Each structure stands twice: as C-alpha cells, then as structure tokens.
Amino acid sequence: MDNSVSETKERPHENPVARQRLKAWQPIVTPQKFVIVMALLGALLLSIGAVITSSNASIQEVSERYDNRNDVVTLQITEEMDSPMRFSYSLTNYYQNFRLYVKSRSDWQLADVDGPTDICTPLESFNGTDLYPCGLVANSFFNDTFEASYCPSCNTSECTALEGDEWQRTGISWHSDRQTKFNARALEASETNVGPAGFPIPFPAPPSEGDNEDFVVWMRAAGLPTFRKLYSKVDRSFSKGDCIRVNISNNYPVDPFGGTKTIILEEVNWMNGRNNFLGALYIVFGCFAIFASIGFGILQHQNPRKLADPDLIPTNARVAA
What we know:
8 helices, four-stranded antiparallel sheet, alpha+beta, extended, about 30% helix
C-alpha cells in the first residue's frame, strides 16, 4: 500500500502541460508558401526602408568644416528647421574601434569600484604618476569647445547667445552610462589627470558638479572612422535666412592622423536623427526577399514538384521499407 501511494505521488499532475499533451501545429513549408512568405517579407522590408529613407530626406541639416580655425564659424539656415535639434561635432579618419585603443580603459576605475587598471596599457601612468582616468580613450578626449549665438540674419551683429533650454549641455549622454558606468571622484595625492595631451581630463569633478557629460559621450567608442558625437541639444526653431554663429575654442589637433573636424546642426526625427544606413539595409534585404520569391516561383513553375509524391522515394529505400 505504501508503494502504491508513493507511485501516485511521483506521477505528474493531470494537466496538458505536465502530461505533454498540448496541441501543436507544425507548418509544412511548400514551395508555394515559401514564395508567398518571401514576397510578403520583402514588401514589408521595402515599406519600412521607404519610410526610414523618406524620414531621413525630410531632416534639415547645416554643417561647416573648421579643422584648424580658431574663430567664429557661421552656419546659415537655408530652410526652416524645427525644434528639437542637436548640435554635434564630427571627426573623420579617426579609428576609435582600433583594438589596442578601445581596450585601453578601466571601466572599474571609471565607475569608482575595485578593479584592475593594468588593462589601461600603454597609459596606466604618466611620468611615474598614476593616471586618473587612465587609458588611451580617456587621454585622447576631444577638448574643443563651442558657444553658439542666434542672429536674425548673417549681416547683423545683433545676436543672442543660445543658453538655458535653447542650449542644453546636460542629458547628452546615455542615461545608463551616467547612472552605472561613470562615477567621478576627487583626485588622490598619488594621481594626476594630466596625460600626454598636456591638459586636465575633465572627468574628476567635485561631487557638487557631477560627471562631465562630454567625457561620458567621448568614452562611448564609435564603430566607424567617420563619426558624430553630440555636444548640445537645441530646443528652438529657426527660419530660412537665420544664422548661427559658433565661437570655437580649437584645441584638438587633427593633422597628425589626417582627419577633419566639422560642426553640425541637425533636426531630430522619430529615430533620433538621420540614419541612412538603416534605411538602405532594409531596402537591400527587401529586394533580396522579393528576388528570392520571384526566383523560386519561376523555378517551381518550370519544374513543379508534387508534395509527398512516393515516386520521389529512392527505390532501395522503398524495398527496405
């Protein structure tokens, strides 16, 4: 009796899940179904690609290359530009994704938690003093600065500085970076924040000032040699004929690596900016799916195959069966 009770307790519960009796459906992929699915998938991808491309085309953007200029650069508004916008800088021929470069950082040190700093090689220290922050990424920080003013025309000197909500220097970095990956602290006596570049890296800020978001933005390495990084959010609209005068403090050299520097003012759409690559990617894969459906459709029409035809079973297999 005890054995029967024990066996009853060990049995699975009387429900479809425990008894593995759930209803199931296994689709059979036929040539006709494959052609239909690929055609629908291609149409969907092409539609998404067309929407993204159209949205990109509607974004207004003005830019000006400045390289070694250390003066006022004028951005002339050629079409109406609506809020919100963002002001960015762009570098070319700069390989932040180079393996030695991108690995030369200590995320433990940046987050102010215990962890190794020897992974910052070859810039763990400078002139015998520990670097904070260490590494190639941190010590190649982009230190050009920009101040912008709005002018109702390019021929007037009556300009108004963009500040406050019109020129937002906070909230430009990823929220997760600010909350979890970066936690600035004061320099210790055995540390320095002046590396080979010769200027203080603006990360070790007093607690009252918080982390430097320009530094946080820079530390998120770009995947391509031509990239943009956000400098400020612009919350106002501009009309055709307006001008934005940008006072540039040019500190960052680009001649050693044959690069260029550009400032960009662009509108922000529902994708948070222009993304030509994503639209082209959807269109390419959509075309591939359409061509695949056409190709398989032609192949099936010229060489039709009857589903579950026993004549297609090899003779030796039928004899064995």
